[in-house]
Write a structure and sequence with these properties.
single chain; mainly alpha
């Protein structure tokens, strides 16, 4: 199970949950939208 999660070379896996998680998710959804992709290409 460790190899599946971490891969062959990683010793540990880290993740963090911040106060701004909702903002990150909102931004990701904006960027991945059709209009967001258009604006990103500009």
């Amino acid at each position: 199970m460790k190899v599946e999660c971490l891969g062959k070379t990683a010793k540990e896996k880290k993740f963090s949950v911040t106060y701004f998680r909702e903002e990150y998710e909102r931004n990701i959804s904006r960027i991945s939208s059709k209009r967001g992709q258009y604006m990103k290409s500009k």
